[in-house]
Amino acid sequence: MAKVNVTLPQGTRDFDAATVRKRSYIMNTIRDVFELYGFEPLETPAMEQLSTLMGKYGEEGDKLIFKILNNGLERPEKHEQTRTAFEEVLQGKNTALITERALKYDLTIPFARYVAMNHQQLTLPFRRYQMQPVWRADRPQKGRYREFYQCDADIVGSRSLYNEAELAAIYATVFERLGIPADIRVNSRKILAALAESCGGANQLTAITTAIDKLDKIGAEKVKEELEQRGLNAGQIAAIERYLLIEGSNEEKLRALQGLLGEEPAAVEGAREITWLLHHFPAGSRCTLTVDFTLARGLNYYTGIIFEVKAPGIQMGSIGGGGRYDDLTGLFGVPGIPGIGISFGVDRIYDVLEAQQLFPATVQGGPRVLFFNLGAEESQTAFRLLQQLRSKGIAGELYHEPQKMDKQFRYAEKKGIPYAIIIGSRELEQEQYVVRHLPTGQQQLLGAAEILSFGFF
């Protein structure tokens, strides 16, 4: 039989038991904080109509959408119809003959679609959280995958700045609980819109934000080259460069912005909102809230405050991001429902916790007890006692068949099970069973009642 080369699709991963438990620890921490702040759970399908997703993420984002081929393309009568359509798809175009659906790129647009479909039944403001996988046809690298989980919290139906304050506090609370002293960076799309106005008009906003959003990846010189390619002149590019070079404390940055864009109404409004948010950030938090005018969030739907979260000292992209979008449902024919949301990148948070060894020892989980199998009668007693321990919340297992003791010891050690309970013929007769702590080798004889009250943690 020929050898089969078994591989995973690039940018995807399998997760073993230890990894799943660590990921669950992260998601349970996030979920607990979402629930604490009054958010309700929601799930949406893995796929959406292609028309729902396209045109919502900017030209760079649209290129990363995974499209799904229609069923039935193998039928001969379809071949002639689809020949030209396939050529269009290969050129980056879309045609309903070939593809009408796609894997979801993020959780925000499907949520906006849900709100548009159900807004008459929702109690506004509607606070929802969602924890599901998303897919992007990106180039895989450290911290960047083609299939990954997002954990989102959104509020729709309110323009109050207290929503921004609550979401910033959620970031701070989650990362404090995880032990990550995160840097929560904040800017405003209103400020970026004012920058665009000063550089030739609102029609320049997409070109400017798309280029600025790449600053960390390609550097300032490449950003200037891209702006030039997008039609901005030398004076406009110089103004953008002065904007990107603003430094100092939060207060110093806001003063410098006023000197650069002080006459633009949108800049005044954006700076006022950021100042308000800074004053309402939790005092004494281990996390910081930092004004960062280089933050652009290249997605087209943001309209106000935008967030991005970094882990200090870790060379990795953002571990969270989001912002205000005051007309996202308008894209689906339901205008006038404002919203704001944030997202946690579970996979990158995992990498940060692993790199800094921040996972608690208790996260490992798994069985605490292995009952040795030393014969039919002995295993019956062991199984009965094991079931009683399980009813008390102690995880354990019975070795599946009678084997030499050294093999059963090796099994327990490989699985990281800390306690072995050995019931042989002598122990069965005396009703005193060996409880051995495998990491130290210490053991004692205990009766059934003593085992049931023993601290296996």
Percentage of residues in DSSP E strands = 15-25%
- Would you report the number of β strands? 16
Helix content: 40-55%
* Lateral strand order in the biggest sheet: 1-5-6-11-10-9-7-8
Radius of gyration: 28 Å
What is the end-to-end distance? 49 Å
Can you give the mean pLDDT? 89
Could you list some keywords that capture this structure?
eight-stranded mixed sheet, 457 residues, alpha+beta
Describe the structure.
By secondary structure, the chain is an alpha+beta fold. It has helices at 17-36, 50-53, 58-62, 76-90, 108-118, 162-178, 189-198, 205-212, 215-229, 234-244, 250-261, 265-279, 346-355, 376-391, 405-415, 425-430, 448-452, and strands spanning 40-41, 47-49, 67-68, 101-103, 126-135, 147-156, 183-188, 288-291, 305-310, 320-325, 339-345, 369-371, 396-398, 419-422, 433-437, 442-446. The longest helix has 20 residues, at 17-36.
What is shown here, in short?
The protein is of the alpha+beta class and 457 residues long.
Topology diagram in text:
Elements: H1 17-36, E1 40-41, E2 47-49, H2 50-53, H3 58-62, E3 67-68, H4 76-90, E4 101-103, H5 108-118, E5 126-135, E6 147-156, H6 162-178, E7 183-188, H7 189-198, H8 205-212, H9 215-229, H10 234-244, H11 250-261, H12 265-279, E8 288-291, E9 305-310, E10 320-325, E11 339-345, H13 346-355, E12 369-371, H14 376-391, E13 396-398, H15 405-415, E14 419-422, H16 425-430, E15 433-437, E16 442-446, H17 448-452
Parallel strand pairs: 1-5, 7-8, 12-13, 12-14
Antiparallel strand pairs: 2-4, 3-4, 5-6, 6-11, 7-9, 9-10, 10-11, 14-15, 15-16
